[in-house]
């Protein structure tokens, strides 16, 4: 199945639905005593919101960022609880939230005030966000007793649980995760509400944070969210493969410079291939020469600066690769985490920045 566009540019994003199921199984194997809140925000991390939900099929709940994303899931037929991670943004949203049985995250006093004034026909289930040290949104620990008291007194509100977010779980050397867990555990002591703390790196590396609900995101898409760890380390399978066709092959003479700025100079005559992919498609412009790609069963590398529509790769000694061959830029053979490391970024940025002009092909 092909979603948008045609293949005339020689670039595509292949989405392996079976990899979603494998990665969700890995979550359940790692956190067997926890329920799974699958995070499909940001258009399913660039994979397609509805297709990601269909691929996952049976998590215990979904988590999204906006009311618009939540409505798309309901309108497509999904009946699981849907959590709004940023909560609601105005009183006008509360009728829809209540009717559709969405669960907003409450993280600020103005939201409590709005809930107190709301007159809805259905009870609204809410999650309470606790700031345990990340210091973005959430109530400070000292505020939680008052928040609980206010919400418990509302007849049209039901507290679904307490959650917080780990700031540095991707860094195994950081002490922050243990400190955040202790703050959260101290707050939860004596309370009888479900608890949620673990994101993807928490699921993979911090079992103490699993608690009642885990909230995996990046690992569901087959990318490693942990510094210096690859997808293979965790038996995750890449869902997205970004690949492009070779549209030109030429031999550059010794001393020839490749691309804008001439950042790569050939030390000897070098056979190169040109791909129909660039930063206009979402490939990182700052990926340096040497960033790996995969061509016909072997690793090759980027040469020169990435252009808006084109990039050049090393084909020296690769007479088996020619015009019309597909080259994997990241996916099953070149992990997105490896490309991200070369480009001094994170795999989250790679997969969510592939642009709409790249056709999506859904498989398996």
Structural commentary:
With 364 residues, the chain is α/β, with parallel strands linked by helices. It is 26% helix and 24% strand. It has helices at residues 17-30, 41-45, 49-56, 67-75, 94-100, 109-117, 144-152, 176-188, 200-205, 336-342, 347-352, and strands at residues 11-16, 35-39, 61-64, 82-84, 102-106, 124-129, 157-163, 195-196, 213-214, 240-252, 257-258, 264-265, 270-275, 292-295, 298-303, 311-314, 326-330, 360-363. Helix 1 crosses helix 3 (49-56). The radius of gyration is 23 Å and the shape is elongated. The model is unreliable at 1-6 (pLDDT under 50).
Choose one word for the global shape: elongated
Largest sheet: 8 strands, parallel
User: Rg, please?
Assistant: 23 Å
Give the neighbour order of strands across the main sheet: 8-7-6-5-4-3-2-9
**Measured distance between first and last alpha carbons:** 10 Å
Concise synopsis of the structure shown:
With 364 residues, the protein is α/β, with parallel strands linked by helices.
Structure characteristics:
alpha/beta, 6-stranded antiparallel beta barrel, disordered N terminus, 364 residues
What's the helix and strand layout?
Blueprint: E1 11-16, H1 17-30, E2 35-39, H2 41-45, H3 49-56, E3 61-64, H4 67-75, E4 82-84, H5 94-100, E5 102-106, H6 109-117, E6 124-129, H7 144-152, E7 157-163, H8 176-188, E8 195-196, H9 200-205, E9 213-214, E10 240-252, E11 257-258, E12 264-265, E13 270-275, E14 292-295, E15 298-303, E16 311-314, E17 326-330, H10 336-342, H11 347-352, E18 360-363
């Amino acid at each position: 199945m092909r979603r948008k566009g045609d293949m005339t540019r020689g670039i595509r994003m292949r989405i392996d639905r079976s990899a979603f199921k494998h990665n969700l199984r890995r979550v359940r194997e790692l956190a067997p005593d926890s329920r799974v809140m699958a995070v499909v925000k940001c258009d399913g991390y660039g994979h397609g919101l509805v297709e990601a939900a269909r691929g996952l099929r049976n998590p215990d709940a979904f988590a999204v960022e906006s009311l618009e994303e939540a409505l798309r899931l309901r309108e497509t037929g999904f009946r699981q609880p849907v959590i709004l991670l940023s909560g609601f943004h105005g009183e006008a949203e509360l009728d829809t939230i209540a009717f559709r049985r969405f669960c907003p995250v409450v993280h600020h006093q103005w939201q409590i005030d709005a809930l107190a004034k709301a007159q809805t026909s259905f009870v609204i289930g809410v999650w309470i966000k606790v700031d345990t040290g990340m210091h973005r949104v959430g109530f400070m620990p000292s505020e939680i007793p008052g928040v609980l008291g206010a919400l418990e007194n509302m007849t049209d509100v039901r507290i679904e649980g307490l959650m917080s977010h780990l700031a540095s779980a991707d860094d195994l050397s950081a002490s922050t995760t243990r400190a955040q867990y202790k703050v959260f555990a101290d707050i939860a002591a004596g309370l009888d509400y479900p608890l949620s703390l673990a994101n993807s790196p928490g699921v993979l590396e911090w079992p103490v944070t699993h608690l009642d609900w885990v909230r995996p995101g990046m690992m569901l898409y087959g990318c490693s969210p942990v510094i210096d760890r690859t997808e293979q380390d965790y038996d995750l399978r890449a869902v997205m493969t970004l690949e492009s066709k070779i549209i030109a092959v030429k031999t550059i003479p010794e001393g020839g410079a490749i691309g804008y700025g001439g950042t790569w100079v050939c030390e000897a005559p070098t056979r190169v291939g040109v791909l129909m992919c660039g930063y206009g498609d979402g490939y990182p412009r700052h990926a340096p020469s040497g960033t790996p790609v995969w061509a016909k069963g072997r690793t090759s590398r980027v040469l020169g600066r990435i252009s808006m529509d084109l990039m050049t790769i090393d084909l020296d000694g690769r007479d088996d690769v020619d015009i019309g061959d597909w080259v994997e830029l990241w996916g099953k053979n070149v992990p997105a985490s490896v490309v991200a490391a070369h480009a001094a970024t994170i795999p989250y940025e790679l997969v969510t920045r592939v642009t709409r002009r790249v056709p999506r092909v859904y498989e398996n």
